[in-house]
Amino acid sequence: MTSAQIRSSFLDFFKSKQHAIVPSSSLMPTAPNLLFTNAGMNQFVPYFLGDQTAPWKRVADTQKCIRAGGKHNDLEDVGFDTYHHTMFEMLGNWSFGDYFKQDSLTWGWELLTKAWGIPPKRLFATVYSPDKQKGDPSDFDQEAYDIWADIFKAAGLDPAVHIVNGNKKDNFWMMGDTGPCGPCSEIHFNLLPSDDEKAGRALVNSSSPRCIEIWNHVFIQFNANADGTFAPLAAKHVDTGMGFERVAGIHATTKGFKDFSAEPSNYNADVFKPTFDEIEQLTAQAGSPKRYTGSVPTERTSLSEQQQVDVAFRVLADHARCVSCAIADGILPGNADRNYVIRRILRRGIMYGRKNLGLKIGFLEQLVAPVVVSLGGVFHELKTQRVMIEKAIRAEEESFGRTLDKGLQIFNKAATDGEISGEAAFELYDTYGFPLDMTQLLAAERGLSTDLDGFEELMEEQRNRGRAARKTDVIVASTEGDAVVDATKFVGYEIDATHATHARLVDVVKTEKDTYLVFDQTPFYGEMGGQVGDTGHALINGVKIDILDTIKDKSGRHLHKIGGPASVPAVGTSATLHVDFNRRRAINRHHSAAHLIHWALRKMLGTHVRQFGTHKTPDRMRFDFTHFEQLTQAQLKECEQLINEKVIDNSPVVSAEIDYDKKPADVLAFFGDKYGKRVRLVDIGGFSKELCGGTHVTTTGEIGVIKIVAEMAIAAGTRRIEAVAGQAALDFIAHEEAALKAVNARLSSGPHDVAAKLESVLNHQKELEKKLKAFEAKASAGLAGELATTAVTKDGLKWVSAIVTAENTEALRSLGSQVLHKVGAGAVVQLGALMDGKVSLVAYCSPEAITAGQSAGKLIGGLAGKLGGKGGGKPDYAQGGGGDATKLADALKL
Q1: pTM
Q2: 155 lies in the same domain as 287
Q3: Which has the minimum average pLDDT: 626-630, 669-673, 677-681?
Q4: In this structure, which of 386, 416, 602, 842 has its CB flanked by the most CB atoms within 10 Å?
Q5: Domain around 141
């Protein structure tokens, strides 16, 4: 089987077991405490917590994962072994309150041994056995043990040999300190040349590459409470995960699970071959052809030339996949958090390619194509975003090309000390993107050591700062006996100024500062998707209660924030709800305008453009999008023209609920957004189709007019447009017209010749400034000549020391330089001037004065000290200042 066939066979197997096959979620996680999506279960957390009802009872997928930061960080190991990756696929199947241990383990065995043909004798299972002395939770997983015992007996194998007990570290899964958890059962694969059962068992959980875990079955059946106790969940779930590259690599290495003589390697999987082939071609084009042989170093230093080559091949193959998939999901290289991690990975790849393979800056962009070849068939966003991925990598390569040279200069300077200090290693790592292992490699080539303890101390300080800043949420899942929290029914898509909704108060939520009312149904839109929440009022028992904001919590309830000290009505009370309709209409205009802008940008610039974030209020809208160049004034004008043409056309805006898996191919679904089984499609005139849960106008003509007011960069590869629509746009136009009329009046011009008049005024100003500078230069030269005549000879040098008048420090510096030139050889010049109540000082020393022992820096230090200030500089020039002007004359006395 090829790698693609292994992936397909896994999904087909579980499809035959009535599993829905769902797409991979984005590498951009929805959980606030995750850097990246790092496990297949991430997208299903709301179902485990009981916050949402799963659209399916059982699902399977292949999930892109990145483990290069936080708790799970494999970055520094990539390249030095054959089984670590920063980005990998996790094959998995899940049950949400449906099947449990019996079916999960039985199907797992069936797929591995019958569908794939793995020899049963080479497989071992682990089950949870708590170490009570260490306070491990729960009890021995007897249920899993009994299931495995029956499976192994049926295969003619001894359960006592093939079942291994594991403690909390190896066999109890927890989402975090709190939240869903449960025992797990891992399947380990003996890859020794011999299939001796005792030898294989001895290597289980020993971190040996010859006996590795290939599939973990997690049984989520408890909630870990904040007080350290464990409560049974209301519904039990199954969560399994299998490393795709690991299985594909083993299959390739063992020639279909038949020959176990060779060392196992994930990189033997054909999913890496297109990238390896491209790297070989790039090295040939660089004039030094290299080939991948699969050698693995036993230590991080003193690598042979071929080992350095093979490490670099693995690094580039992994990092190109990781960076390409991350950028396709909107995680661009940057300076903070997950964006900085992607930048580090990208730069690490550049370093290895340049240092180990002799490739020139610009090579990494060319590895996007083979990544798309190997993964684009299953992760289609790689194909659609290929142009953007290449542009992002190209921009980063060009930037790092300059940083790299500076970093190497820092390294060379640090190397003169006979050892690379911890401070230097950390600066190279943190500021210039040098991985520690690369710094060590550069040092080893010169026979130098690296202060690892000093480096680690600084790293720990950085980690502590990160831990202190990290937000930790206490997660609570629905446990047995808990009441099910129903989501609020939203009935506010089609309302008018007279609309009133009759509802029942079902809950009152109080926080430290605010009080929120929860109704069984509501016309109030809860803030979501960049659209602000509605305001209005509720009539309860004849009392009007203002609603100041509406938010939506993770369980789908709409929380209506109320103001004032009014008494809170009792749960169960009837209410009549009224939305501030004029405010809602203004929001609708800006939300629909955002869709039009998105459509126009994609039409103008290309399909790589996609929404990266929006914010819609009654007064304006913000639209962030992926693009790598500033939009020209002509492009902004074209964008406005396109969107306002559609406004004038009065195109219909139609919304409808559809099944997510039945959405038309031309509908935009924002990668990274969470979609359920049913989604809302917003179709504007047939040309703009997006999945969107927000509220909109009914025809584009309701928008009135759209004006773009600003365009700017907010991050590498991300731009922002700010716009106004409807009345806000009319107000903006009126303000601009008033400003233009004021300029016209001052210039005595009309609207059509104002630009020419302004250009004439500016040109005249430039001429005046030019003449003024010439006059000032002449006056300064005359003053310099006068000052030169005051030179006093002292210790064989010619000294000029004076209080002068200067408009700014630049003029003072220029005057001092001219005096020095006019005095000539052996001159020492020190001048002081009063500017804005403070004293500015400059000093100059000629080469002869420096040879005689004078220094401008020392002179200024002494002068500024007498004035209660400070200053300094080089021997030939220095500047400074002070606050005590009364002492200036005495300070300048020779």
Answers
A1: 0.67
A2: no
A3: 669-673
A4: 842
A5: 3-246
